[in-house]
Structures are given as structure tokens and as C-alpha cells.
Amino acid sequence: MTRPKAKTVRRVPRGEKRRTELAEVAERLFLKHGFAETTMQMIASEAEASKETLYRHFSSKEALFAELISARAATVAGPQSALGRDEPPATALFELGMSLMHLMAKGEGASLFNIIIADAQRAPDLARIFYDQGPGATLKRLTAYLDSATRRGQLRCDDPRRAAKLFLGAVISHHHLHCLIGQPPVTISPVEMRKHVQAAVEMFLSHFAK
Q1: Which residues form the HTH tetR-type domain (predicted)?
Q2: Can you give the residue range of the structural domain that contains 38?
Q3: Count of CA atoms in the C-beta half-sphere (13 A) of 53
Q4: DSSP labels, 6-18
């Protein structure tokens, strides 16, 4: 009788684990105090680490913030997503839409966006970092996917970047606005979320599918 192979469990290196812990502490403090009012010393103290340890992992507060935003974007449209695996358009777009909606429903996207609004004047590079590592990165990945799907003959996107903007807007613009102003007070149900995303996918494909 052949025994099933034991599942390989990836051991997280100590340095990588500590880096993640520091980033989590920084995010809590950014959300609580804002970016401008949070210092590297505050982050180090809250994480029970020395400033030297913190700077060994992150060269600056801006670099730390950039990594937080990049990690968020990777969960939405990173290499492990259906988009990154070049799944069929209906599958890839639906997964992307649901990921974005879950981000909105949890309030994380709106909270980070509020940090930008509050601190952009005092930290002018913050808005650029947020866009480049977050929404801009997702737009870039979706644009590349739509271009690739068009070349494979699955879609008909003459301007993949414009098509990507249209899809992202159809999925999140209304809900993003409501999250930013704290409305609606009732959370979106999973059923409503799926219906909304599926409608956006079907509308997109009705125009751009081959």
C-alpha cells in the first residue's frame, strides 16, 4: 500500500516573519494616528523592537507604507490570482471583482484612502506611493491581462488600458464612494456582492468578448 505524500509546509524564515510583524504594527499606527503623525520610533516601540531593527527591514516610513499597499494589491491581482495565471476572462474578471469588493466590504481600502486624503499635503509623496503600489499596480496588471487575452483571441480590446479602467469602475466606483463617506451602514451581503460582480463581468464581456 502506497502511503500518501506528506504535505510540505513552508517554514517562514525568522527575518521574514519579523518584517511582517513590523508592517502589521505600522499599519495599525497609520490607521490610528495618520501617516504624518506616526514616527518610526513609535512603530519600533509598539513592536518592541529597536529602531536599528526597523531600519534594517525598511529604509524609511515611506518604504514601509509602500510595502503595505503593494501587499494589498498582490492579494487582489498578484501572481497567484486567476489574473496572474491567465485564466479565461470570465473567471479572471470575476475573481478580481470579488477580491476588490471584499477589500471594500472590510473597509481596508477606504481606511487607507482616508490616510492619503488627510496627509497628502504634509507628505506629498504619499499619494504617488499609494497610487503606484495600489490602484495603479492593479490597473497595470489588468491592462496586461486584457492585452494578453486579446492576443490569444479571447477578447477584443483595442485599448486594453481604457477597457481595464471601465471594468474597475463598474465594479467598485459606487461602493468605494459609499465606503469613503460611511454609507451604506448595512454591509453588502455575499449574495448581493456576487450578483454585482457577475453583472459587471457580463456587461464587460458583452462588449469586449470575441
Answers
A1: 16-76
A2: 13-59
A3: 19
A4: PPP-PPPPHHHHH
